[in-house]
Design a protein that fits this description.
alpha/beta; Rossmann fold; seven-stranded parallel β-sheet; three-stranded mixed β-sheet; 18% strand; binds nicotinamide-adenine-dinucleotide; binds uridine-5'-diphosphate-4-deoxy-4-fluoro-alpha-D-galactose
Length: 351
């Protein structure tokens, strides 16, 4: 049994990844401040375990704490060594992710995302842990001309959030070079994760009005909001609405397991990998698929473009497929079905 440290493990992507790792028999230490999540997610993970006759309670240690606090991180590494279960690797999800908030309050983002990450890397270095999978984002590419974004597409973040992700990647690169290339690092650049675990027990839990398309659609369908506003009908795309590369969160979770396996089995390296499906879906296509699959109405109207939006973001995911021997298995219908199941079973999230 290997022990992994998961920062931000109570969040949307973190919780699904924890579940995939638990299924593989790993021990997890989760640190989360719960600034954007609920500790109740752990009970749900245990419940999924029970349904499958597993006792994940024995595999998880949860620490409510902030990665900006170096002393907490230090104690986690020392305790794991004392218990003779040293931390073999880290998946680093902890971070703030709201683009608009990052424009309004950049210091919050630089401090939480970058300072928090530096603390984590310092603790890893001090206790000889040099395997890390980092949650990066397709947002770092900005608005390039290419139809499919490759890992070597020009990086040009358009907001402070994107810059924090790019900066953390740069810090990891510097660590890799300075360590005599001893570290094993995977920067996973996620495209648009949506959907939920098929059990309907864990899913995305925006604490405020959702900014993102998919959770907003779910709430309109649930009649929390009257209608969806589609931001722009005059983009230069086939139906005038923006195109994104949506990926099922469970496929994304599995990409993390594959990345950890790859790093453990291979020589030190630093990888940048696009984690998407390579398939573009317009906002209108998403609304129509959701309605059709779930047999539910999603009223919408067109509104002005949202500032900072770009018309099309689709992954060239060939490098990830080849390197990780992983591929996304769940299609848009499944994303819509599973996301809706989570919504109707948990209209108040984890409360
Ligand atoms: P999330 O907000 O659901 O999860 C992030 C978790 O980190 C939360 O549980 C939060 O409480 C915790 N956290 C934040 N700051 C912390 C700190 N200083 N110390 C301890 N815990 C802290 O978000 P998510 O959608 O699961 O995203 C996970 C990661 O993936 C984030 O780093 C995000 O930037 C990145 N990402 C997300 C998307 C997306 O569309 N969801 C896309 C690209 C990249
Ligand atoms: N959209 C609407 N109405 C809404 C919400 C969104 O029309 O109420 C549209 C947006 O204009 C965009 C598309 O739906 O065209 C997708 O928007 P999201 O906010 O769901 O996703 P983004 O691609 O804008 O951004 C997301 C995350 C970022 C991350 C990026 C990675 O919010 O943090 O994906 O590609 F960096």
């Amino acid at each position: 049994m290997t022990t992994y440290l998961i920062t931000g493990g109570c969040g949307f992507i973190g919780s699904h990844t924890c579940l995939s790792l638990l299924k593989r028999g790993h021990n997890l230490i989760i640190i989360d401040s719960n600034i954007n999540s609920s500790q109740n997610v752990l009970g749900r993970i245990y419940k999924i375990g029970h349904i499958e006759n597993n006792h994940y309670e024995n595999q998880i240690t949860f620490i409510k704490g902030d990665i900006k606090n170096y002393e907490i991180l230090k104690k986690i590494f020392i305790d794991a060594i004392h218990k003779k279960k040293p931390i073999s690797g880290v998946i680093h999800f902890a971070g703030l992710k709201a683009v608009e908030e990052s424009v309004k309050n950049p210091l919050l983002y630089w401090e939480n995302n970058v300072f928090g990450s530096i603390n984590l890397f310092k603790a890893m270095k001090s206790y000889d842990c040099n395997i890390i999978v980092f949650s990066s984002s397709a947002t770092i590419y900005g608005n390039p001309k290419e139809k499919f974004f490759r890992e070597d597409t020009t990086i040009q973040p358009m907001n402070p959030y994107g810059y924090t992700k790019f900066t953390i990647e740069k810090i990891l690169k510097d660590i890799y070079i300075s360590s005599n290339k001893e570290w094993k690092i995977a920067n996973l650049r996620y495209f648009n994760p949506i959907g939920a675990h098929e059990s309907g027990l864990i899913g995305e839990n925006p604490l405020n009005i959702p900014n993102n398309l998919f959770p907003y659609i779910c709430r309109v369908a649930y009649k929390n909001y009257k209608e969806l506003k589609i931001f722009g009908s005059d983009w230069n795309t086939y139906d005038g609405t923006c195109i994104r590369d949506y990926i099922h969160v469970v496929d994304l979770a599995e990409a993390h397991c594959a990345a950890l396996d790859y790093l453990i089995e291979n020589k030190p390296t630093i990888l940048n990998l696009n984690i998407g499906t390579g398939i573009g879906t317009s906002v209108l296509e998403m609304v129509n698929t959701f309605s059709k699959v779930n047999k539910i109405d999603v009223p919408y109207s067109f509104a002005n473009r949202r500032s900072g939006d770009v018309p099309s973001i689709v992954a060239d995911n060939k490098l990830a497929l080849k390197t990780l021997n992983w591929f996304p298995k769940r299609d848009l219908s499944e994303m819509c079905k599973d996301g809706w199941k989570w919504q109707i079973n948990n209209p108040n999230g984890y409360n």
